[in-house]
Amino acid sequence: MGYTRDILDGAALLLAASGLxxxxxxxxxxxxxxxxxxxxxxRPEAPNRILWLNTYTVEDSNLTDAVTGLQIWIRTGSDPxxxxxxxxRVFAALHNRRGFYLGSTHVALAWRQSxxxxxxxxxxxxxxxxxxxLRTTRSTPxxxx
Length: 145
Fold this sequence. Notes:
Number of strands: 7
């Protein structure tokens, strides 16, 4: 796998192993499933509760050290406190986690950088994003170790 897929797949597996939801590679979930779906890619309309992942570049240099952002889109029902409860559980699983692997990518440190409640989507479901930074080792032929 590549670096980005390592982070997305590895983070989804970690969140599922932490008891936060169900991760199915490929992201296929039924509309009537009463679960919190974990995945990445295009956010699905269903199920109602999701933890959906995306990455973005924060800092690259000419060294193998990198900081990559991991955005977690949180969607629940109509109660914003349920949304913040799930965000708190994500925080417990990721914030200040040190020395672990997402796939074959070493993560020296993960921390929450920001989080905000977005309000309701058109279906009345509460949404929030939480942004975590991952200090990783990203080796490529043109970088110095």
